[in-house]
């Protein structure tokens, strides 16, 4: 049973794919609840209240997937998760409309003094002249970060007759044209906009993007909005520019520290605030919860996840096509690792035939995950495979060849150490399955499965018989046996499979036989 911890308030109805999941137990408790056994948790679902740090991950050795029921993953140490092979998924578009609408509502409220007027009327006042507002019509809205939310906001602003000027270094001219917005530098947006709103993620590049220097490049009387992440606008700098009258007002949904407690912006009447409500609609909460619950279930069902931060997306169709090769690649990596015990400095992979139509980089990562399994403590998978190789100084190369060695496809992997190298080649035969067809200079043909031994020996009469006799005497049943040799009387190999692994004594007895050069267990 997979243990799935829902650590933040996530919409219950949206969690139904996990509540109905027979192979998972859903635990809805805070991360620091003493009843939560962190070391047993397989999946962690959070919103923004839980901060997923490297220290926390250290306490969760079984964790395989972190799901953020929302967009921003700045509360998750994605690098630390990646290093441990933990997939991080989010719900990228479930709350886009809600956040765009909230930003729009904040902008309209700010320009028409709605919160202040509301409070005044409730205080039994009737000050119609105190709350003269400003129209949105004809004003220039500057959008910094033209992704999903920025784009939805732009559409709404245009309907209200606003001009939209955007800054996003990753936005193409074609997309800007399609969205009907004017695209410029940050400096241009700062200089031209009447209202500026930020919609970027919080990253080292965007932290403090709006600071004293950039604020001083804006028009006097500009308005600011932040419904993205606290910290993109430097709060103290903004407070200073509101205080000196340069900024006419600000609407803030998100803070550097949440909840913010006493805050320098709160003393200004022309600053309106909400407690991180961008995604707080029934619709958005249901959407994001459903999206991540489905993703976690798909993951545990062995299906591809769609919205991973640290793994390329793969459609179901492609995943089905790649699946047999993925398994074969892992097996090749594992055989290689078990046959070549020394430290490796290079792994090169050659793909040929039908497999080259697929996403081979995914297979390369599978080869590495098979290779590192049992070699290092860390669970290596497609998420951290390249990183694991890099950290261990192993160069990984991938190439395509037209030589299929007579098969419809083949995957050939060579691991190189200082004075040694070992090659394993496999193929996948439709309606038949995976086969290993080449092992270190020997042509062979065996199913990579179960408990095997790989024996290097001299091709002399009686060797195969002696191996069979010794194992028979010890009541060991040989399930399959394949032999390969280069030339009569020269070096040869045997690959045998058994119902259960050979023990150390049995291995030692075989190793001591005359004409046996070496013997290795291969457990797949
Ligand atoms: N207040 C709330 O409750 C919510 C806040 N958010 C925040 O809004 C952010 C944006 O969300 P989406 O639009 O869905 O993300 P998105 O990924 O679709 O868009 C982000 C855009 O920012 C741009 N960008 C990145 N670095 C930039 C830079 N240095 N300068 C200018 N543009 C830059 C990207 O190119 C991208 O187009 C999220 O990262 C999240 O932190 C999201 C949902 C709810
Ligand atoms: O969980 C929430 O309500 C916050 C949403 C948010 O900030 C996000 O999706 O990035």
Automatic annotation (TrEMBL):
PANTHER family attached to this UniProt entry: D-ISOMER SPECIFIC 2-HYDROXYACID DEHYDROGENASE FAMILY PROTEIN (AFU_ORTHOLOGUE AFUA_6G10090) (PTHR42789:SF1)
Protein name: D-3-phosphoglycerate dehydrogenase
Protein function: Catalyzes the reversible oxidation of 3-phospho-D-glycerate to 3-phosphonooxypyruvate, the first step of the phosphorylated L-serine biosynthesis pathway. Also catalyzes the reversible oxidation of 2-hydroxyglutarate to 2-oxoglutarate.
Family listed: Belongs to the D-isomer specific 2-hydroxyacid dehydrogenase family.
Listed NCBIfam families: PGDH
Xref: SUPFAM superfamilies: ACT-like, Formate/glycerate dehydrogenase catalytic domain-like, NAD(P)-binding Rossmann-fold domains, Serine metabolism enzymes domain
Molecular function in Gene Ontology: phosphoglycerate dehydrogenase activity
Keyword hit for NAD: yes
EC code: 1.1.1.95
Catalyzed reaction equations: (R)-2-hydroxyglutarate + NAD(+) = 2-oxoglutarate + NADH + H(+); (2R)-3-phosphoglycerate + NAD(+) = 3-phosphooxypyruvate + NADH + H(+)
Gene: serA
Keyword Oxidoreductase: yes
Pfam families per record: 2-Hacid_dh, 2-Hacid_dh_C, ACT, PGDH_inter
PROSITE patterns the UniProt entry points to: ACT (PS51671), D_2_HYDROXYACID_DH_1 (PS00065), D_2_HYDROXYACID_DH_2 (PS00670), D_2_HYDROXYACID_DH_3 (PS00671)
InterPro entries: ACT-like_dom_sf (IPR045865), ACT_dom (IPR002912), ASB_dom_sf (IPR029009), D-2-hydroxyacid_DH (IPR050857), D-isomer_2_OHA_DH_cat_dom (IPR006139), D-isomer_DH_CS (IPR029753), D-isomer_DH_CS1 (IPR029752), D-isomer_DH_NAD-bd (IPR006140)
Protein keywords: Amino-acid biosynthesis, NAD, Oxidoreductase, Serine biosynthesis
Domain (ACT) ranges: 452-524
Metabolic or biological pathway, per its Swiss-Prot or TrEMBL entry: Amino-acid biosynthesis; L-serine biosynthesis; L-serine from 3-phospho-D-glycerate: step 1/3
Class in the EC hierarchy, top level: oxidoreductase
